[in-house]
Amino acid sequence: MGRLSELFEPETVGVIGATDREGAVGRAITANLHEEFAGEVVPVNPSREEVLGLECYPDVTSAPPIDLAVVVVPPPAVVEAIRAVAEAGTENVVVITAGFSETGSEGAARERELRAVAEEYDLNVVGPNSLGVMATDVGMNATFGPESARPGSISFMSQSGAFITAVLDWANEQGIGFQDVVSLGNKSVLDETDFVREWGEDPDTDVIIGYLEGIDDGDEFVEVAREVTDETPIVLVKSGRTDAGAQAASSHTGAIAGSERAYEAGLEQAGVIRAHSVQELFDYARALSGLPEPETDGVAVVTNAGGPGVLTTDAVGDSRLGMADFADETIDALSEAMPEEANVYNPIDAIGDADVERFGEALEIALSDPNVGSAVVVSAPTAVLEYDKLAETVIEKREEFDKPVVTCLMGGDRARAAEEVLREFGIPNYFDPSRAVAGLDALARYRDVRERTVDAPERFDVDRERAREIVSRANEREDNRLGIESMDLLEAYGIPTPAGEIVDDPGRAREVAESIEGDVVLKIVSPDISHKSDIGGVRVGVSDEDVYDAYEDVVARARNYQPEATILGVQVQEMLDLEESTETIVGMNRDPQFGPLLLFGLGGIFVEILEDTSVRVAPIGESDAREMIDEIRATPLLRGARGREPADVDAIVETIQRLSQLVTDFPAILELDVNPLVAGRDGVQAIDLRLTVDTEEL
Amino acid sequence: MGRLSELFEPETVGVIGATDREGAVGRAITANLHEEFAGEVVPVNPSREEVLGLECYPDVTSAPPIDLAVVVVPPPAVVEAIRAVAEAGTENVVVITAGFSETGSEGAARERELRAVAEEYDLNVVGPNSLGVMATDVGMNATFGPESARPGSISFMSQSGAFITAVLDWANEQGIGFQDVVSLGNKSVLDETDFVREWGEDPDTDVIIGYLEGIDDGDEFVEVAREVTDETPIVLVKSGRTDAGAQAASSHTGAIAGSERAYEAGLEQAGVIRAHSVQELFDYARALSGLPEPETDGVAVVTNAGGPGVLTTDAVGDSRLGMADFADETIDALSEAMPEEANVYNPIDAIGDADVERFGEALEIALSDPNVGSAVVVSAPTAVLEYDKLAETVIEKREEFDKPVVTCLMGGDRARAAEEVLREFGIPNYFDPSRAVAGLDALARYRDVRERTVDAPERFDVDRERAREIVSRANEREDNRLGIESMDLLEAYGIPTPAGEIVDDPGRAREVAESIEGDVVLKIVSPDISHKSDIGGVRVGVSDEDVYDAYEDVVARARNYQPEATILGVQVQEMLDLEESTETIVGMNRDPQFGPLLLFGLGGIFVEILEDTSVRVAPIGESDAREMIDEIRATPLLRGARGREPADVDAIVETIQRLSQLVTDFPAILELDVNPLVAGRDGVQAIDLRLTVDTEEL
């Protein structure tokens, strides 16, 4: 593929299928391009000599060289049209035409052809089924939408063309500007990851935003986005969050929905800030595109009205930020500058008769305080407060102190002009205190993304060959599942398991029991019996003398329960002191988009009833493994809460990492559960294991 | 007090302290009244003969009779001014003047005087420190704010005058109208409960909304609001939700903050719909003021754009509503009416070229479906879709089927005119699909409020006199606390406790133990030792033979731990089978605004680590007690999850009700904890008790 950046800075744009027939998409695109594009527009259509006053060429070979081809010919002609432009030297193509994979098998076949041609010629292809692309830098609107974007520093991709149309209409009215806009369409060649990568390198893009219904390659997206978010914030609406939404998205785009849990984890690991509505998307983007991140979390609130001040304080309380504790000098300075009735503690209530000067003084004093990382100016309209002058003062103080300031100038019309001035200087004005604080909160979230250190996955020294051999045993199982008889898989990856072995006669059971200190546990080992305890297939606290009989008993019960069951033997296992330890669970299942999704929780009711779990997309390093443990609500139980024995958290962290390595090394493992992983004061022990293997992947 | 409704329908309004001095509040009010008021405006001021062209009277005795007096004289003159208007026969007074309890002790004294005069003359007094009141019915704007409200069916109270100013400016621009508006000020006489009661009886008020920082008498508010919400929805922003916000509210209004938990429970029990921002307040109010409640929870989504359709579906998934399952006939009818590419399952995607007619057909078919309780029309702007005609069609279908329909016509300017038409017919248009669904959700919430049945508190037959005697023992304790030695308090209220008694010699301990079947538990009884187990003051599983020694041992350990401790004896208690039962906790603490707040949770980690509790304001009946149990996350554990013994939930329900009665009967009980209340398969047993008593209340 050629450099993607060229897609957004062509000197000539060809419209393949240009026309001036009223109502035709080929006319709308040509007209939109013709209006403002800094370069040359080249209509191509064998049946026209002129389109909208521009010279029209019968084919691309007779046309001047085209940097970007916009294809609007009927579906059956698309692939040939692309081949033709490619032969003529064009590297960038936008396919507007619909009727591909979104419409059934014929369309899907056509899309495969399209992809093959793109590969053959190494083309950048947007679409098919795209509204088009815009690049305000060069005045290019190569879409058939009714609106052009205003220039700005937000780059915007959307999997829904209608979403772009809807948003632009409103954004233009609000004065929100864009750098590049892309309607992704069916994403047959270029997808969200490509544009994130491209815009991450674009110095003119301050924020990347997007509306996505699915991410094709979650793994790759996380990797690329993680790097990009070091420099450029990404805010995404990923729809299909709920079951009903996922179903709707799947019927809309034909994509297989990955699990919301995987998206949540993957996007979080990628450093993406997630918005849940159009409003949130732009509330965040407006703050991120114009303001620096706060250095500390203390917020100062400056207002002329008690009620709105309290509402703002509540919003701060709801956010990751906190109300700044003012230094004594700040209180003193405010007391001096403000009237007696004012509240000089945070929120600063400069009271109802506050004019611009008093607001300015309060804001200046607040921003001088080192405990203040950001500020919200909240005002009710009054006779003495001139909003346009207030805007100037806010801009001045914001720039003087280089701290983020947002405003909530309440009231309708009155605030409009002030809002426009503020916007020009990057300061978003919000309708509601809670939205203003959400804007600041997005800045703090992004600061945390930038500042975080994510440990790279550690490579432990493991016995991969032995593990491969064990996993391959699944070939011998009809259901491709392995159970407790494969505990040596964990051993191969350095995860501690209790002493013991699987035996197939009672005499050997006794020998093993005698080699183990203290009592033992016996468990039936059978691929056909999954609830061992329920059928009496488990005996705990068995002494050496009793082992022989217990063996016979356990086997008899299993036979009795299911005469046809294959019995591989009986596991004789060291008995752990469960009173002094905590049962945890580490699991994995493979997500179609993101790959292996690790899960951690405490055993029993905590996972099953309280659903108190944390997840990460593997592979992960130490920092993520540790966060998984800290994130669950029940984590104090591992730390020794309520007089419990504290668990060896470091050992759990290491186990999670080793399992991360295992499931990454073996894509054939579809699901895996270590349940329980018992964590004591010193170390952990995996007591039981189940996994499902895709034997075709072996 | 005279009828409060007269406050909103005066024939003459007197302005006590009217003036035409520029910038004076007394001028602003006179001018606002003069502008549109249907009745007579009577300025009163001894130093003017005319104010803004109106005849001005030197005092109220020489003025015509005044129905409503608006007082704007300086603070020291307010009380006399009120007395004068009362003497002249006025029953309704709004005190605009500030400088009362919000400013310190002198102001507080002045406010007490004001309240005394109001009581003496049986006056309705709004304020002091109020922006004023409005009643659009009679064109009355008796405030000094810059804007008059438009007529409408929303009645609005606010504890912040600035909030009213800010909101009206914006609401006027949005075309949102009001019936009455009240700035509550310091609420020295009339408070939120009075206006809720009044508006509940006002046929012209469809929705009551409010901004409150505190509720003075939570108990009374719950009682009144519960009744009002049977007919009229109430939506409130109660600020000071967070710790920081509560502190800010308290410094703003001087009120003692009750706990957020109590507000949450009290408002919920009252049937109030709570909003967390200005935006939510009006998003809900707009739906509630113009639309019927949905009969079922199924939502139909009709759109011309896949992406926004998916976003809407997600919003439905997040709400209490669900996507409607279309009947087969609906699918058939849609398949017939829509083009082939359309999605006829819910969300209905009528695709990009849908015109008004197709939208109308889709909406009609959807609303005909009995599974559809409400609908959202979501549209992206297109060349073929005329928004104003779409509005007409939506109005027509909504009225035809009498089901609630909201819209999200995306795009800026384009939607404006349509939005106005829709509003006239009660249909709110929202910026964002998530807000549109939130509007429908508010309707469903209100339907649930109307339909709920709240059981009245049952009066159990209890031994109140004995209980009074036991509670009074707190008089003998320095710290006003009672412990396990007061278990008979629970017995007096019919709550089961294990067999046993408190003894003070080892011989008697043995006698008691012998009278109890099985082993016993010994517990030291001392007001000075609160963590009995930690110091070895508890012995479980003691056999009859061992009781003597165990008694000596427990006492010795207590003495050893704290030689000065008062030891009341040792409790010899039946030992319960805790393996087969579940520990729960029922507690109560008294909230300054709402009174007794009951708490329920499972014992141990569930309350302390997971904070998994439910609360209600007492007294409560069976339905609330049952809900308390159902609301906790761990509730499946009581129902027999994971092979546990199911607990006797009915017995817990009864215990909660009996405790509700106990704490209601004895306001002197400030705090009470039954911990644990052990719930077995058949019945419950209270094992331990602590309470704190306000001995002055005895």
TrEMBL record, chains A, B:
It catalyses: acetate + ATP + CoA = acetyl-CoA + ADP + phosphate. Residues 7-100 form the CoA-binding domain. The keyword Nuclease does not apply. GO terms for molecular function: acetate-CoA ligase (ADP-forming) activity; ATP binding. SUPFAM superfamilies: Glutathione synthetase ATP-binding domain-like (SSF56059), NAD(P)-binding Rossmann-fold domains (SSF51735), Succinyl-CoA synthetase domains (SSF52210). It holds the Pfam family Ligase_CoA_2. Keywords: ATP-binding, Ligase, Nucleotide-binding. Its EC number is 6.2.1.13. SMART domains: CoA_binding (SM00881). It comes from the Archaea. This is acetate--CoA ligase (ADP-forming). It comes from Natrialba swarupiae.
